[in-house]
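Session log. Operator J.P. requested a structure for one protein chain; no other inputs attached. Running the standard single-chain path with token output.
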Amino acid sequence: MNASPAPTDAGEVIRRHSRSFSLAAKLLAPEQRRRAELLYAWCRTADDAVDRATSPAGAAEALEALRAEVRWVYEGGTPDAPTGLALAEVVAQCGLPQCYPDELLDGMAMDIGDADCATEAELLVYCHRVAGVVGLMMCHALGVADDAALAPAAYLGIGMQLTNIARDVAEDRERGRRYIPSDWLAVVPTPGDPLDDAIYAPAVERLLALARRYDDAGRAGLKYLDRRSGLGVRVASAVYGAIGDVLAARGHRVSMGRAVVSRGHKLRLLARSAVETAFAKHPRQVRLPGKLWAFVPLSGSELTGGLDMKSNREAFYLMTFALALTLLMGTGLFVMVGLNPNRESFGNLPWVYAGLSLAGSVVLWVISGRLAVPANRVAETKVISAE
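Structure written below.
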């Protein structure tokens, strides 16, 4: 393992496989975008090692080769594969702990053969390994201002993975995989059974509810990122939330095909995320994490206390957002009256009302943005020294 080919075109990999992450990556600073794309390319390779294998033995052999490659990188060697070089570059720049890529490969190993989850606890372990640790690695790629960002980063990854699972029930079923816990299903289908929405829809709804809880906990950590990175992560989270909304609008029916968020909707989410980021507090300087995070389910953390008010937050969010739009439209009407040639009888009142309406709209817009991103206190989490 001493050849030194050029690293893979990581930007092309992320554009080809994930439009959502590609959009979010474009919002990052060039150096951070480069590291994020390199990490995605390596994680994609690990995923494909299992998905494209022609047999469980072939998948296990491919994963063992990746494990050897990881060991070689951390021993200071130069990998042969372009994606191995991608990982090596991130490790060299960010001091990425070896336990994270090792744990991701442990998660990929759970996909070998007929992947089935019996309980919610097993599902969460899987989601942490294949996605939560990606959030932890991204803390190194993006830089964080506080080690308290680690737990939210992992939770955000878990929330996204739960949404992925809810979206891909039909596709995973064709691969012989079922990530929905058996104890969530009234009847556990066998591989030969037809796809029955009546069986899966309640479980998909439950998956999305769990995903929202983890996503809310994860978004509480955005304040630890610099403003530009915070925007990128906020957009990615918003797009995944929109995927859940599409599934909910379909009545959680998995037979209706893959849920897709339109480009126009993504642009609206980008605009809203930009406004939220503009009024959010972000550190001016960041640093690399100094700790490792050991997985603690959300149910075992202190973040759960504030999440029971989510429905009320959503109601207030919708109300303030609607009022902000109403006042904005009122501003336009008052401006039109002020520009009317026959406005003499009104004097300066239209302009006064326009100014007051615009100010009120801005205030309510800011409040709605705050309500859309629950400011939950970051949980005290179990950590171990990185040394």
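Operator note: The CA atoms of residues 226 and 284 lie 6 Å apart.
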